[in-house]
Amino acid sequence: MTDTMAGFTATLERSLNEFVRGIVGAVPELLAGLVFLTLAYVAIRIIQAVLRSILGRAYPTEQRLIVDFIVIVVSIFLWFGVGLTLLSIVGLGGLAASLGTAAGFIALGISYALSEMIEDTVAGVYLLRDADFNPGDTVIASAGTGVLTEIGLRKSRFRLENGDTLVVANRDVESKWTKKAESADGTGAASDD
Asked: Which of 45, 61, 139, 193 is most deeply buried (CB count within 10 A of its CB)?
């Protein structure tokens, strides 16, 4: 019984010593990762502020949604890059490479699955930037004619003559729409876009 207890104690002591050596050996990598993460946080915050400032001058106040969208997308890419780099710093470079490759395939699949949503969003950005397409305008689109009440990133809303609200995907609006111009006698006359 004593030999078994002595063997168990020796194994436990070896395992504990190996664990402590592993922790002590990993401390420099963990500290480097912590320093990198702190610097990356500060750098990303600076990039976000600069990007907001530049885009804030390019887009008017009523189009802040576009600025927020672009800043969020850029931030996601930056943080993903920081995560992969952090894994490499702490010694998990193989895992970082695998995650990077898997993320590329996942992004490809998601972009295919969400292609119509992406198309709506891109069309929404164009509509928001179009000086001739503003809330309050009477617009003839493929889905109907109405007063434009709201332009969103994915959908535009029109108020029809009967008071109903028509919601149309931006890709359908952006592809072909006509702004109905007011004539001198107050009646609407169509003008093509």
From this structure: 139
CA proximity to 152, closest of 92, 71, 65, 49? 65
Q: What range does the domain containing 167 cover?
A: 132-192
C-alpha span between 17 and 48 (Å, rounded): 46
Q: pLDDT digits over 18-47, tens only? A: 877 777 777 888 888 899 999 999 999 999
Beta carbons of 141 and 135 less than 8 angstroms apart = no
> pTM for the full model?
0.54
> What torsion do the CA atoms of 150, 152, 158, 164 make, to the nearest 10 degrees?
-100
CATH of the domain at 167: 2.30.30.60
The pLDDT tens digits for 154-163 are 888 988 888 8
Please report which residue ranges of 59-114 form alpha helices under DSSP H. Answer: 64-89, 93-113
